[in-house]
Amino acid sequence: MKIAAPVCLGLVLMFGRVACATAEALPPLPAECAGREIVEPRPPSLPEGLKEGDRGIVTLVIDHDACGMATRVMVEKSSGIPALDAAASEAARTWRFTPAVRDGRAVAGRVRIPVDFNTDATYSHSPSRSAGFERDLEQWRRMQVPEVQADADATVPSYLPDPQAMPMDSVDEAVALLSSKGEQVQAPSNGVSVYRLHDGLDISTWELHQAGSALAPSVIRRRLVSDGKKAFWVSSGLCGSQEASVCERFDAAMRAEGRQRIIPPPPTPPGEHR
User: pTM for this one?
Assistant: First the structure.
């Protein structure tokens, strides 16, 4: 699976949805992939008969073909509970991935995906309004944005403005947040590093520009959202430079043209209507 700016993520949301979003233009899948679409990937529900407290994280390594379909699923790190390992593996065989592109053609690849059973079960499996459910519901609501029209190739513009303001007022505050809670997914290169924040449905990637970058100090946040029909990324940013020309270049970089592929949205929780 390809890593592309800002970052290409294999996403296992709490509902087991998996896809890869990228700002690059994506060529069509091979002709032999016709008829192999998966519209509703099956989430990894909690197995029946678990004991109280039986939870864990299963790390899977999944080989997929050029159509993005899983061809081999391996448990790299067990949850310690065979039933959870089996449920994650069975669900993964139905997931659809966005393949990497080499010389203009989609190719087979391999991804590593953690499946987290530590949260409350999926909405369809545990509809009780527990504290975990209420948190998930609030995250789902924050994720919703107005509908964006996708092109025939299932892409939308790479830059879409985020209707939610950044959660901080300065780049220094962003650095503190990412240092304490972020996962660095790209080591610093020319003053630019990439972080991920992932809490349930609150998923975002952060492009941090520090000393060595022509756009320093600044940060771009890309947040995963949904319009109810599809999921995609929206962007916002902070420029901390005192030079107007730097902030102008920063704004142009954040708004750079390109396309991102849409992915399936999380299902609507019970009682919610759009």
Answer: 0.57
